[in-house]
């Protein structure tokens, strides 16, 4: 969008939605922060079709941090990088190393970044027969230990946030005892929580399938929620957009959690088939989710502890890594801007009068039909950033540099 188009676009939005609402949308976009995952910048295996790596890909955690810094420089929205414990804090990919933690922390600091959520890596040795729900006590103990160390790292070096995703489950009926698997998971989680400091926050991610195709131990938000109730006040539910059965109404889940006062977090991505981990796209579902987050006051709340934790969880395949992540940030900001435009008072009036279609059309006028790119562009221009993130990246010279260096 050219500057003239942006100006004109803002004028049109002001006429339809009111100048105040447009201003608040710009402010919200400026205030919104989201974590980027370290793993998006590297080479992520895509099985037997994965023999392709885009140029300029980061080869180690330090190059990943450089990429993250470049993303933050362009977007101003991503000062924190989520880490995968035994990929990023280990020399051999099997054991945690405090020396690595220190080096990574220092490198991040020098680049103006911080370590965000710490993700223990549960898909390592022994995990083909589950982790927290495993038969073998040594496997459970090893993974509990890893989580405890993750919590220590999160406390000492990061934002005191640990996000847990367990691959536990089964692929055939009869393979494992369903009740026992859940009980074991709960016991090991309780044991973990006893060992970690109360001011470290733990988000529990659920997923309907994979690697288990018949069942997963933490399959849905209800299971996560039940567990968090047992675990205490420093536990919450992590919603990953790729982890539900098709056609699940995710905004409804969001409202349940908010209404019950359950602290939450998001892993943003886009899925078509299943857990595709694609870049975030600015689709209507995302805008509706943001509407509920805005209404629930858990996004861009000036009281930081009221906000949910927002992270991008994507693993790109053939697409250019930096494009992929910038596209996600752009999409999230678009969704937030749309959510901010909804006149909730007018909507409530229509709801009270039971104007079914009129309410729906009114809602969609903001969430689907409004072109909010001028809002997002203005938010950036006011912060001395370029209006178009991907164009700014292409013009930055960073691509040429990394393409040449990283061979
Ligand atoms: C897996 C899960 C997931 C989770 C990630 C964490 O699908 O979304 O957040 O691992 O390590 O890929
Ligand atoms: Mn996830
Ligand atoms: Mn996933």
Could you characterize the architecture of this molecule?
Helix 1 (3-17) crosses helix 2, helix 2 (19-31) packs across helix 14 (373-382) and helix 12 (344-352) runs antiparallel to helix 13. The chain has helices at 3-17, 19-31, 61-75, 85-88, 98-110, 137-157, 178-195, 221-231, 250-259, 284-295, 321-341, 344-352, 356-369, 373-382, 389-396, 398-405, and strands spanning 36-37, 80-84, 114-119, 161-164, 169-170, 201-205, 215-216, 235-240, 264-268, 309-312. The chain has a single domain, classed as TIM Barrel (Alpha-Beta Barrel), CATH 3.20.20. The radius of gyration is 22 Å and the shape is globular. The longest helix is centred in the middle third of the chain and has 21 residues, at 137-157. By secondary structure, the protein is an alpha/beta fold. It binds alpha-D-allopyranose and manganese (II) ion (2 copies). Alpha-D-allopyranose binds next to loops. Residues 240, 242-243, 275, 277, 313 line the site of one manganese (II) ion.
CATH architecture: Alpha-Beta Barrel
Number of helices in the DSSP assignment: 16
How many domain regions?
1
Bound molecules: alpha-D-allopyranose, manganese (II) ion
Assembly state here? Answer: single chain
What is the tally of beta strands? Answer: 10
- Helix percent band: 40-55%
Question: What string, H for helix and E for strand, traces the elements in order?
Answer: HHEHEHHEHEEHEEHEHEHEHHHHHH
CATH superfamily: Divalent-metal-dependent TIM barrel enzymes
Note the gap between the termini: 34 Å
Unreliable spans are: none
Instruction: Give the C-level CATH assignment.
Output: Alpha Beta
Q: Which class best fits the helix and strand makeup? A: alpha/beta
Kindly provide the radius of gyration, computed on alpha-carbon positions and rounded to a whole number of angstroms: 22 Å
CATH-defined fold name: TIM Barrel
Global shape? globular
Mean pLDDT: 96
**Can you list the strand order of the major beta sheet?**
4-6-8-9-10
Give the amount of beta strand, in percent: 5-15%
């Amino acid at each position: 969008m050219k500057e003239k188009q942006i100006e004109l676009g803002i004028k049109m939005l002001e006429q339809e939605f009111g100048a105040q609402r447009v201003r608040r949308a710009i402010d919200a976009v400026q205030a919104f922060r989201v974590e980027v995952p370290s793993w998006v910048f590297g080479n992520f295996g895509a099985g037997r079709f994965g023999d392709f790596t885009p140029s300029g890909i980061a080869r180690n955690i330090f190059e990943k941090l450089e990429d993250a810094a470049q993303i933050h420089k362009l977007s101003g929205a991503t000062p924190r990088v989520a880490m995968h414990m035994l990929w990023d804090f280990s020399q051999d990919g099997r054991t945690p190393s405090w020396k690595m933690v220190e080096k990574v922390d220092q490198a991040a600091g020098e680049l103006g970044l911080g370590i965000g959520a710490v993700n223990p890596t549960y898909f390592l040795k022994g995990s083909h027969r589950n982790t927290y729900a495993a038969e073998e006590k040594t496997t459970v103990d090893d993974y509990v230990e890893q989580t405890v160390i993750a919590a220590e790292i999160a406390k000492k070096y990061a934002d005191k946030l640990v996000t847990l995703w367990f691959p536990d489950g089964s692929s055939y009926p009869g393979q494992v005892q369903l009740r026992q698997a859940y009980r074991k998971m709960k016991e090991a989680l309780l044991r973990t929580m006893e060992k970690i400091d109360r001011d470290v926050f733990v988000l529990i991610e659920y997923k309907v399938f994979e690697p288990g195709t018949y069942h997963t131990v933490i399959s849905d938000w209800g299971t996560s929620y039940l567990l968090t109730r047992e675990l205490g006040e420093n536990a919450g539910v992590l919603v990953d957009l790729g982890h539900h059965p098709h056609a699940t109404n995710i905004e409804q889940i969001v409202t349940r959690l908010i209404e019950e006062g359950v602290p939450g977090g998001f892993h943003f991505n886009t899925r078509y088939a299943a857990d595709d981990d694609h870049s975030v796209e600015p689709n209507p579902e995302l805008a509706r989710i943001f509407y509920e987050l805005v209404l629930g006051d858990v996004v861009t709340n000036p009281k930081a502890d009221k906000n949910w934790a927002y992270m991008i969880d994507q693993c790109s395949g053939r697409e250019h890594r930096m494009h992929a992540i910038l596209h996600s940030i752009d999409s999230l900001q678009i969704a937030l801007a749309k959510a901010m435009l909804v006149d909730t008072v007018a909507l409530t009036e229509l709801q009270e009068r039971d104007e079914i279609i009129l309410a729906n059309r009114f809602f969609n006028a903001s969430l689907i039909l409004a072109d909010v790119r001028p809002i997002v562009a203005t938010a950036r221009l006011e912060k001395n950033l370029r209006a178009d993130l991907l164009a700014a990246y292409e013009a930055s010279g960073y691509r040429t540099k990394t393409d040449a260096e990283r061979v």
